Automatic annotation (TrEMBL):
Signal peptide: none annotated. It comes from Amorphus orientalis. GO terms for molecular function: oxidoreductase activity; RNA binding; zinc ion binding. Homotetramer. The keyword Transcription regulation does not apply. Keywords: Cytoplasm, NADP, RNA-binding. This is NADPH:quinone reductase-like Zn-dependent oxidoreductase. One of its GO terms (cellular component) is cytoplasm. It is found in: Cytoplasm. Residues 10-316 form the Enoyl reductase (ER) domain.
Length: 327
């Protein structure tokens, strides 16, 4: 099979297109013919060596799969050849999704939502699981609460806005003025142009000083550091960004706030919850740009570029029909 391998850490040019042996499904595993994958910030962090201790080289990286079951190992009962499936490969636990085939434990695999193409599903699995973990498992976002989503036009952010609205939350979001209409179209009640307006002042104005119940941080740095200033009492901050910077814990303490730092975990339950939102028409991933498998180096370079202008996700069409098949 063809795969994009990583023989060394470095820039996008570190990748190499390789021909390697197709894996075989073992006991409790499924072999999936990958139709689509996508690019995440985690992917370029792995590629440049941020997690070098956890990624032995050479490696096949990538963290989203949508495809069709090719074969199943002994003991598999949930799936059969021909089933359309989606999942996030085990992070730091073996080969990833930048290839034509992938083997995974049936425990982390779900049936692909019928209303999504393979490309759309591949642009939802990791970010959708991250959003579910952040908003519901960790922050416990509830009907009638309010949330501020930082980076609302991005991969995680655009899913978070939709998921929060589906819960019945009042959604405030930060985005550039260029992306404001896109974010409103996702369901945001208030969009704050972070380039022209201080988000702390804007949130406090929009909430009459009450603040928001939850902040979802996808940016880190000063954006995360100032987030306690917009929290209501008993508010929750959830960040998906690893950070070594000191946090404003005195401000958070005064508001009885809690912090949650999320590194998503794989399970079928989250995929099923996301699929239910898709089926109800409350969630649809946005594919901002598409590359072929061999174009992964270019896709990495584009996503890693600051202010790249890509809304939603960058998808990788591993097979040509990935953009049109919904079976």
């Amino acid at each position: 099979m063809q795969a994009i391998s990583l023989p060394r850490f470095g820039g996008p040019d570190a990748f190499a297109l390789s021909e390697i042996e197709t894996p075989v499904a073992g006991a409790g595993e499924v072999l999936v013919r990958i139709h689509a994958t996508s690019i995440n910030p985690l992917d370029y962090q792995v590629r440049r060596g941020d997690y070098s201790d956890l990624v032995p080289l050479p490696a096949i990286t990538g963290h989203d799969v949508s495809g069709v079951v090719e074969a199943v190992g002994s003991g598999v009962t949930a799936f059969k050849p021909g089933d359309a499936v989606w999942y996030t490969p085990k992070i730091f636990g073996g080969p990833g999704s930048y290839a034509e085939y992938h083997v995974a434990s049936e425990a982390i695999v779900g049936f692909k939502p019928a209303g999504l193409t393979h490309l759309e599903a591949a642009c939802l699995s990791l970010v959708g699981g991250t959003v579910w973990e952040a908003l519901f498992t960790r922050a416990g976002l509830r009907l009638g609460e309010s949330i501020l989503v930082h980076g609302a036009a991005g991969g995680v952010g655009h899913v978070a806005v939709q998921a929060a609205k589906a819960t019945g939350a009042f959604v405030l979001a930060t985005a550039s003025g260029y992306d404001a209409d896109f974010v409103r179209g996702l369901g945001a009640d208030v969009v704050i142009d972070y380039r022209t307006e201080d988000y702390v002042a804007a949130v406090n104005r929009e909430t009459a000083g009450a603040g928001v119940d939850v902040v979802l941080d996808t940016i880190g740095g000063e954006t995360l550091g100032r987030s306690p200033h917009v929290l209501a009492q008993l508010g929750r901050i959830v960040s998906i960004v690893d950070t070594s910077e000191p946090q404003n814990l005195i401000e958070a303490w005064g508001r009885n706030a809690s912090y949650h730092f999320v590194f998503t975990r794989q399970n079928r339950g989250k995929l099923n919850e996301l699929a239910a939102l898709v089926a109800r028409g409350q969630l649809k991933p946005h594919v901002g740009k598409i590359y072929p498998l061999a174009g992964i180096p270019d896709a990495h370079a584009e996503l890693e570029r600051p202010r790249n202008g890509v809304r939603g996700k960058i998808g990788i069409a591993v097979v040509d029909e990935a953009t049109s098949r919904r079976d």
